[in-house]
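TL;DR need structure tokens for one chain.
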Amino acid sequence: MKGFITISLLVVSNVFMTLAWYGHLKMREFKWFDSLPLVVVIFICNKMV
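>> reply
TL;DR here they are.
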């Protein structure tokens, strides 16, 4: 059973990382995506105050 859980987690992780990589390449076309990390940090900091 442990082997099945391990393999399942590896498969799920691999699918997620593949989708994240392709999404990263696709989002590079949008200019607003370049400043998204800054917007996220500002949003989180405003929620903490």
